[in-house]
Every structure is written in C-alpha cells, then in structure tokens.
Amino acid sequence: MTRVLLADDQALVRSGFSLILSVDDDVEVVGEAGDGAAAIELTRELRPDIVLMDVQMPVMDGIEATRRIVAEDLAKVLVLTTFDHDEYVFDGLAAGASGFLLKNSDPEHLVEAVRTVAAGHALLAPQITRRVIEQMVAGERTVGAARSAASSGAPEPAGPAVVPAGLAQLTPREREVLELVGTGLSNAEIASTLYLGEATVKTHVSNVLAKLHLRDRVQAVVLAHRAGLV
C-alpha cells in the first residue's frame, strides 16, 4: 500500500485527487494540507510514502516545503502544478522532488505517476530532463566562473569533470546505461538502443543508483553530466 499526502490550497482539487487515487486498491490518501507549512507538519506526523505537492500555496510554497521534506528524508515528493514553466521544474527538482506532473494530466497518468515515484523512479519526460540538466550545467558554470573571477580577478578555464569514486564500481554495461540515462532516454528507449529487455535495463539502472548512492534517476542524470559522460 502506497500512502499519499495531498498538499494543495484548493479543497476541490484535493478532493478530486483523492477521488482519483481512491480507485486504486494499492493507494491510500492519508491526509490533506492546504499550504506548504501544514504539509511539512502532516508529513512528519503521518509519514506518507509520497506527497503530491502543489507549487503555489500560501504560508509556504511547495518548492520550499519540498526542500524541507526531502532534507529530513520524510517522504518522496511529486510536484503538481498548472504551469508548464522551466523554472518550476528546475526549482522543484533542485529541491529534491522525484517528479513533476501537470494538474491537467489524465487521471490514469496521476495514478501511474504515484506508482512510478513509489517504485523509486523519477518521473520526468525526456525533454523536460534535458531542459533541467541544461539549466543545472549552465548554472554551475556560471557559479564556477564567478568564484574564479572573485579569487583571481579573472575567470579561469574550466577544470576537468569531477568523476565520482563510485563510478569505478560500475560494470561496462552499467556505465553504458548511465550514459544513456544522462541523455534523458527512458528505460524502453535504452532497451531499444542496447538491444536489451526493458526488465534488464531496469535492473542495470537500479544497480547504478545503488552503487553511486543516488536517490533517483534525476540525480543519475545530473551525475552523468557532471562526470563528463554526456
């Protein structure tokens, strides 16, 4: 049973989500919150597996609430919003969210999203993943250049990519899978590219996450870029 907490400032929206999720026998809505601060308190109290988090809420917005929930390792967060803006996706994932879904998605997509995140996978369309990573990489380059300029008075050439120590533990196939994950491909697309079964790809992805101590697929994408694999 996957326990879900709903966080949205509109009661009708919460009721709608609750009705949709209640159809699934494997999902239980354990609580509702009308703002980010209440979402944090209820998450601490009820310990749900997943928090469906709206972005724009009073008292505390969903991004800050997500950041605090993830920092305390209280639950996984699936960000829901009516706005398909890059900044919401970027900020939500940077705060530690495991997925991003528009509120106008079909009901079956909402249920599938909960199942996906509950299974430990990140929920992002490949094109959204690519946009997010582009922003992350660009942001890190900007910060690095600013630090170099502040310390020496002039920007320095970028240094070599930082290679995590755990990367050496990966098998050649796992490293290959990580590289393809880094490009934003789904498991099905990776399976097609490498002529493997999708179940085999899922196993490789799980092994990569475990060996590199990564929370989810999004962190794997970020690491692949930072390590220069993509």
From TrEMBL:
InterPro entries: CheY-like_superfamily, NreC/VraR/RcsB-like_REC, Sig_transdc_resp-reg_C-effctor, Sig_transdc_resp-reg_receiver, Tscrpt_reg_LuxR_C, WalR-like. Gene3D superfamilies: 3.40.50.2300. Residues 3-118 form the Response regulatory domain. Keywords: DNA-binding, Phosphoprotein, Transcription, Transcription regulation. SMART domains: HTH_LUXR (SM00421), REC (SM00448). GO terms for biological process: phosphorelay signal transduction system; regulation of DNA-templated transcription. SUPFAM superfamilies: C-terminal effector domain of the bipartite response regulators (SSF46894), CheY-like (SSF52172). Residues 163-228 form the HTH luxR-type domain. The modification 4-aspartylphosphate is found at residue 54. One of its GO terms (molecular function) is DNA binding. This is Two component transcriptional regulator, LuxR family. It comes from Promicromonospora thailandica.
